[in-house]
Specification:
Length: about 250
């Protein structure tokens, strides 16, 4: 699912590639692409998987998530999204303890709007979504979650870009805020890269992390991605990482 910062594990996810010919994929990165897919086109973005690792007090917990996102271009400014995580696994290691749980995660439905701006150096998109508690006991929020996010990207020229992202996820009378900044750049040929930093606060938890990722675009339709983020505070996850694929049809 597109994981709007309800839990830190749901942050694994997706930035617009810096390559000029690439579709506006949401994978990878903390935020999402500040553009919609062309009308009549669609894509599939898949974690293979993404993971979160945390440790403390002699206990190490690792969660693997096969996040799945389907996006459908409706008009030149609107896009429909359907997301979920059909497979998840959490493993717990502690002295004398080795346990795991498997199951599906929740399902979300979202609508992205990317208005046309007079300043062509900037792009802007808003994504509203509703997360339904359809997952198994170990991987559900246990309630409906609504969220609204915004991503703004500044074209810096020569394939470089700066993205700012903010999101509010609301559930059970509490709000969880996510803020991030992302700098994208070309590496060589069809390889692109980015660095990012993010802060999650509210909902009784807070965390900060930073990291980087690379993308590899094939035939302007298929993108592979690899990323790693590291926690910056004691309350942050030790590691957020993932490998994924995005496929575009039109």
């Amino acid at each position: 699912m597109r994981r709007r910062a309800v839990a830190t594990a749901s942050l694994l996810a997706f930035v617009q590639p810096c390559l000029a010919d690439a579709p506006p994929f949401d994978r990878p990165g903390i935020g999402f692409a500040s553009a919609v897919l062309p009308a009549g086109s669609f894509d599939w973005e898949q974690g293979l998987p993404d993971l979160q690792r945390d440790s403390g007090g002699g206990v190490r917990t690792t969660t693997y998530t096969a996040d799945t996102l389907f996006r459908f271009g409706l008009t030149s400014t609107l896009e429909l999204q359907l997301s979920g995580s059909p497979w998840n696994r959490t493993t717990i290691h502690a002295p004398g303890i080795h346990a795991h749980a498997d199951g599906a995660g929740d399902t979300a439905l979202g609508l992205k709007w990317a208005p046309a701006l007079a300043n062509k150096q900037w792009t802007l998109a808003f994504l509203g979504s509703v997360n339904f508690d359809t997952g198994s006991a170990a991987f559900t929020n246990g309630r409906t979650v609504t969220s609204l996010g915004a991503a703004a990207t500044r074209d810096l020229g020569d394939g470089r870009s700066l993205e700012l992202y903010a999101n509010d996820a609301h559930a059970g009378g509490a709000d969880t805020w996510t803020f991030s900044a992302n700098y994208g750049f070309p590496i060589h040929g069809n390889f692109g890269g980015y660095i990012e930093t993010a802060r999650v606060a509210g909902g009784g938890t807070s965390s900060s992390f930073a990291g980087a990722g690379i993308t590899w675009l094939l035939h302007e339709r298929v993108q592979f991605d690899l990323y790693v983020d590291s926690g910056l505070t004691s309350r942050s996850p030790d590691l957020l990482a993932g490998f994924g694929i995005s496929v575009f049809w039109k």
